[in-house]
């Protein structure tokens, strides 16, 4: 690295450190370009992106079809607010509700906003349809959840870093163990005020915890039994990431891996974000059938940017890419290959003891204490070797490359990962 080049990265990082709020701890690499599965830093070094902006860039960086939809729409009309109709929103809503099999969609911008929307929708349904007394509704959530960063959402987080000194907290949530049906049944059978069960089909931020085989199906059945809405936060797991269009699809074997309207589990409220736009623009959505969604009336909820024509155009293109390029099928196939290769290495490894995940949402568990910085050190070394990943909670490294990856590229990545881990064995 020459002195002049060194300066480019150093300068960009120094600017963020000096003028930006320090609410993140980025891996020291400064990116300036992306294409497909690759990103490049300001010095021109190429990397495999193994984070995909937390599964937002499932369609690959700067996908030409999505960027084209963005630029074409940007020249025509970007924002009207919902004070008026626009010619893209209804078209996007029709496309997306048919794509996922729901009556209606509520358009919003970020994942956290979509979760907030789902909470409000669930509560209003509880009072107006289920008949719970005013302000008594409870929503069941899981320990170690991650649903975003608003004050209400962090109120039911158990991550001290996300929570501490942000109180007072919002009431109305009951926390149970993830992947524990007995606890769910206990809480549902002992409490008539439960309105919803909010759950991640796989806990991503917590460290890619995949629940037991029939967990979601049985949890949904319990929700039906007690007239409680099953709310799936598929912001990270959705849009082909886990080898199905939605992780709620379970293990369906329909050829398109999109469960064609008969998923194993059909959430009453579906929360989408991240890859809904292919990482090009913030777009999120809440989907539900009329019985639930119709409790929302004019003025009850909204957002100035929610449902703007630019977002609508981008999201349709992003979903078309997922379907046309068969990204769910690719994620499923490559996921199996990835875990097989990692498992063969793990047999002889001392530093890595476990790989887990579904499709191309995977993680390895580093064999060191939770508060050691070994995972961080490994990520620095991966970066040096041309692959970008980030530790998540505990000593865990998440691996989530863009779903447009080829098998050849994946094998190159497996070589980099194993070579790097061996340096720590
Ligand atoms: C990322 C994420 C969110 C929050 O999305 P933002 O766009 O960052 O607000 C919510 N739920 C899950 C499961 C996520 O992974």
From TrEMBL:
A molecular-function term among this protein's GO annotations: ornithine aminotransferase activity
Enzyme Commission identifier(s): 2.6.1.13
Cofactor entry: pyridoxal 5'-phosphate
Keywords carried by this UniProt record: Aminotransferase, Pyridoxal phosphate, Transferase
Pathway annotation from the record: Amino-acid biosynthesis; L-proline biosynthesis; L-glutamate 5-semialdehyde from L-ornithine: step 1/1
One biological process term in Gene Ontology: L-arginine catabolic process to proline via ornithine
Family: Belongs to the class-III pyridoxal-phosphate-dependent aminotransferase family.
Listed name of the protein: ornithine aminotransferase
């Amino acid at each position: 690295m020459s002195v002049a080049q060194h300066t480019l990265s150093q300068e960009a990082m120094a600017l963020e450190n000096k003028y930006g709020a320090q609410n993140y701890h980025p891996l020291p690499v400064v990116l300036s370009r992306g294409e497909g599965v690759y990103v490049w830093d300001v010095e021109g070094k190429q990397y495999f992106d193994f984070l995909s902006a937390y599964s937002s860039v499932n369609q690959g960086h700067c996908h030409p079809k999505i960027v084209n939809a963005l630029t074409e729409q940007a020249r025509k009309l970007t924002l009207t607010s919902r004070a008026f109709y626009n010619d893209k929103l209804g078209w996007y809503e029709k496309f997306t509700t048919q794509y996922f099999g729901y009556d209606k969609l509520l358009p919003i911008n970020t994942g956290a906003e979509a979760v907030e929307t789902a909470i409000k929708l669930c509560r209003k349904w509880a009072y107006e349809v289920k008949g719970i007394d005013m302000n008594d509704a409870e929503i069941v959530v899981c320990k170690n959840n991650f649903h975003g960063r608003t004050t209400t959402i962090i109120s039911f987080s158990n991550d001290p870093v996300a929570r501490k000194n942000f109180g007072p907290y919002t009431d109305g949530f009951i926390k149970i163990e993830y992947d524990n049906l007995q606890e769910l049944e206990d809480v549902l059978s002992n409490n008539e005020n439960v309105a919803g069960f909010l759950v991640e089909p796989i806990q991503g931020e917590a460290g890619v915890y995949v629940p037991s085989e029939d967990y979601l199906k049985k949890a949904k059945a319990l929700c039906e039994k007690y007239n409680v809405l099953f709310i799936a936060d598929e912001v990270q797991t959705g849009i082909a990431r886990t080898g199905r269009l939605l992780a709620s699809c379970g293990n369906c074997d329909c050829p398109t891996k999109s469960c064609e309207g008969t998923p194993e589990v059909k959430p009453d409220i579906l929360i989408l974000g991240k890859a809904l736009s292919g990482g090009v623009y913030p777009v999120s959505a809440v989907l539900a059938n009329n019985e639930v969604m119709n409790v929302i009336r004019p003025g009850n909820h909204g957002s100035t940017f929610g449902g703007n024509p630019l977002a609508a155009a981008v999201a349709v293109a992003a979903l078309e890419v997922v379907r046309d390029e068969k990204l769910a099928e690719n994620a499923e196939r490559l996921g199996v290959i990835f875990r097989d290769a990692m498992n063969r290495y793990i047999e002889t490894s001392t530093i890595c003891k476990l790989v887990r995940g579904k499709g191309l949402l995977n993680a390895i568990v580093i064999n060191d204490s939770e508060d050691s910085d070994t995972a961080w050190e490994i990520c620095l070394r991966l970066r040096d070797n041309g692959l970008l990943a980030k530790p998540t909670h505990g000593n865990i490294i998440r691996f989530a490359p863009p779903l447009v990856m080829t098998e050849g590229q994946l094998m190159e990545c497996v070589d980099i990962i194993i070579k790097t881990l061996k340096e720590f064995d």
